[in-house]
Protein 1
Amino acid sequence: MIRSPHSNPGETLLLDTHIWVWMVSNTMERVSAVARAALEESAAKRSLRVSAISVWEVGVLSRKKRLGLTMHVAAWVERGLATPGVQQVPLDSTVALLSTTLPEEPPSDPADRFLLAKAYSYGWTLVTSDARIIQYAGKQGIAVLDARN
């Protein structure tokens, strides 16, 4: 697998979509105290990242009525990307290709694959409470912060 020359292991946190949704909706009680502290520290350093694939996923979930937003999805995304410390990262061809060639049995969800590939290729830590992602990342040497309570 390919790593970016711009990686800064452990310094940047890539948010899984549900973590970003919980941050924006102020439901962080779902996140462990250790993960909350890491998120706050990273926000202060402006080193939280949200992938464009998470914007896509929020749109899909909203359209399917699986995500109860209190405003139009475009307004929610704008607000979510304005969260202090958060910076959006685009999709790129290297990560797109890597998401299709992850070893062994990666999660089947395409968004999860993109996030795993982005975290790996940039040396970022993926923050998630998804047990499948945590287990897979651990086996593959992809940095992950377990946010489960």
Note: The CA atoms of residues 39 and 48 lie 7 Å apart.
Protein 2
Amino acid sequence: MALFNLPAFDNHEQVSFYTDQATGLKSIIAIHDTTLGPAVGGCRMWNYASDEEALTDVLRLSRGMTYKNAVAGLKMGGGKSIIIGNAQTDKTPELFYAFGRAVHTLGGRYYSAEDVGITTQDIMHANQETPYMAGLEGKSGDPSPFTALGTFLGIKAAVKYQLGKDSLVGIKVAIQGLGHVGYYLCKHLHQAGAKLIVTDLNQQSLTRVANEFNATVVGLDEIYSQDVDVYAPCALGATINDQTIDVFKASIIAGCANNQLAEVRHGEILKEKGILYAPDYVINAGGIINVSFENDYDLNKSTAKVEQIYGTLTDIFKEASAQKVQTAQIADELARKIISQAKNK
């Protein structure tokens, strides 16, 4: 495998590999672009099928953070990290001490935070070995509720644009993934009167959401073909692919997962089918927006900036329609323009 020839490499500034025999740490930290500031992006802990899969994931996530932070108007570059392992069985404080030491070797070029499989407590452990951690207790804290808020507002923007409805009462939403963000998203949608259809690997999460929000539970592979208004992918990426794209009945795809399109061409297929796609790194930026207020935290200011996601997405929808191109292309062009202007200052 040639790293520099990988499609996901995309001119990354730095990719670092770390191991620690004593704790079992196997980690990759990817820094995509630091034009706008130090790279900031969470750490994901996942039991990857192969090292190649792990590398591709961290590279795609890192690039996504560059674009996410740019479009959100943050003075942050893009980076991401992964820890290879089972988040349910392989965690120890020592593992995260070792991860903190790994982050510290980068000297502030990269700041980490929570992502899939990582808790605020894990980040606090890593913080004992390095100051380059964000989403800390007592500061901005868990970013999940803000990611969920931004995604909820993004769904409202998409429903308004695509269906002409200001209210979510009676809107049917299929939610794939009920982790921290997925749970909070379900709460927002339920309170707004939406009807929920959900799936997840975790039976306890399914039972909780079914009981609290009157959600209908379906099988993992059944979620794609549900007769709903909105499909909300909130687990891992690439669920919009050759196997799923022909069975979607939803007219809107808007969720908090990263890298939802398996390939760029799938965004074009969605456009051709008349399905409105909310670009993932725009709709799910609420968490990193909240983290951006870490050192001078103000809940009201953070929430107000997260609420701007509604308008940003609406502008992207309108521009994509005007140019007759897919929404992901407009979002990418916007991000690249912001970064280019910063480089030329």
Note: Residues 20 and 222 are 40 Å apart (CA to CA).
Protein 3
Amino acid sequence: MVNELIAKSASEKKLLGIINPVISDMGFELVRLRLMSNKEITLQIMAARPNGYINVDECAEISTAISAVLDVEDPILDAYNLEVSSPGVDRPLTRIKDFEEFEGYEVKIETVDLIDGRKRFRGTLAGINGSEILINLDEGTIGLEFDWLAEAKLVLTNDLIKEMLKQSKTNQKFGDKKFDAFETERLEETE
């Protein structure tokens, strides 16, 4: 089952079925897919490595592979632009594992329906409990079922920027290996 955070509309879900296997076979994970039309149609793909880091060359590789498949399948009738990018620092949270990975960071969440009279929540991620997203708000910790979410994204804060810069620096130095904070500091001290 595809959750609404990754692909919302029926046409997006159809595209997801075509694109996701290509991205997965390349060793990446699809974070979000959006088909947007203003003056022009844009197919926006956000992808990441399982460790979260992706570079410009990898975005170009994904774009080339997706373009080839879309040229054959031809699921979009009109002309369109393909945009492939990393999720960015203030990334959307679309998979339940994202909420666990970014525990402790500030988040904005919008629900599909009203929950206790509101749809928008801003607080600090407190992890997950099964399929429930835990968030610390001023009034206390609440749980929101993952299926209730319409949108969720990290809030750009100094702590988040510092952490992302640290991860990016570590990934550039040490390839795809994932190190915890202690190992990262120790490795940087030995240089």
Note: Residues 53 and 175 are 10 Å apart (CA to CA).
